[in-house]
Fold this protein.
Amino acid sequence: MSIREKLFEFLFNIFIRNFPEKHTKCLDVWCGKWLFLEKLFKYWYTNVEWLDWFYAPENKEILFTKNDFSQKIEKQNEQYECVFLLDVIEHVQNQYILLDEIHRILKKDGVLFLTTPNIYSFPWKLYFLFRDRLWGFNEAQVSNKPRLSPGHINPFILNIFLEFYSDKFELIEKYHYGFIIPIIHKFIWIDSKFLSGNLILILRKK
């Protein structure tokens, strides 16, 4: 099983623990080729929607909305019980505009699943010490689209987010995953604050 498949399985188990009802209304925001919603759909969670600026789901039964990063999310207020933001936030120039929009479309007590690079891990700090930049982040990758970049341009600072959004979101679960073994470059699953290269955050709207 690949790291991505393990992540899907891990997220899915958290999801069904929080949302056992099959009619839960979900939105995957700018999911690209992650296809996590298609996994939910296979398990009879059919009230799911896909939002992206380019990629459309292969399964045509999943509602698809094309939405550019430069625009507001064209969805009604408090419409979703769950929103997925999987490896997206680090690509966004203005993260707070996007987070405000997600807060707007989530129902009260709705849940945001967010994954992003763990810049607090020891390998990331060591890389920064010797290379004077964050691993995987490159300002040269900034695109001409107002709020979208194909590369990692904007690290997600968890403590700042929790301080600024203390009246909007509550962190209910946090996990870490992924570690690249040096020399052989093998990517393994490990939940370690100090070693894992990625964060999984489960946030509830207040």
Observations:
- The longest strand covers residues 106-117.
- The mean pLDDT is 84.
